[in-house]
Amino acid sequence: MAVRLDDLDRNILRALQADAGQSLDEIARQVGSSKTPVWNRIRKMREAGVIGPTTVILDPEALGLEACFFVLIRTSEHEADWQARFLAALKARPEVQEAHRLAGEIDYILKVRVENARAYDRFYQALISEVRVFNVTALLSMEEIKSTVALPV
After folding, report:
1. Less CB within 10 Å around the terminal CB: N or C of the chain?
2. Can you give the pLDDT at residue 87?
3. Do 136 and 71 fall into the same domain?
4. CA 83, 84, 85, 89 torsion: positive or negative?
């Protein structure tokens, strides 16, 4: 169920999404409020689950993770045991940045970040040694045009 937010809440969320490391004073200045009401609203939005853990966005290329693959997976197995093993395998692999179960011809799509094609092949070989899949198609991203974790609030 969606939480009711007013304009001030949304402005605070926009400021936090732009830079969660900025001071309360700076956020209050940006949203046209004072520090205490901003802090109280942030606390309430955390308690309501609107704001999750604070984290840091790293530059993958600066860390040598220059290859981004989108991996399309089709499976002929849909039993609970297979699904549990598959999900455990994905969660255990730090290369998997995102995993989505889909409607349609493709069952899953993964976003996998690795150093290069050889590193992707190691990931792929390890994954298929753990769980059986019907078909895997890997698409190499040639250029990242837009990437954000910010939501349109």
Report:
1. N
2. 96
3. yes
4. positive
Same domain, 72 and 29: no
Give the pLDDT score at 27: 98
Domain extent at residue 87: 67-140
DSSP 4: P
What is the sign of the dihedral through the CA atoms of 38, 43, 47 and 51?
Answer: positive
pLDDT, tens digit (0-9, with 9 covering 90-100), for 117-152: 999 999 999 999 999 999 999 999 999 999 999 999
Sheet strand arrangement including 96-101: 96-101, 108-114, 67-74, 135-140
Task: Collect the ranges in the chain with pLDDT lower than 50.
Answer: none
Residues near 93 by Cβ (< 8 Å), separated by ≥ 6?
123, 126, 127
Here the CATH number for the domain that contains residue 33 is: 1.10.10.10
The reply to whether 77 and 119 lie within a common domain is yes
Report yes or no: 98 and 111 within 8 Å, Cβ to Cβ.
yes
How distant, in Å, are the alpha carbons of 22, 31, 35, 41 from that of 99? 30, 35, 38, 32
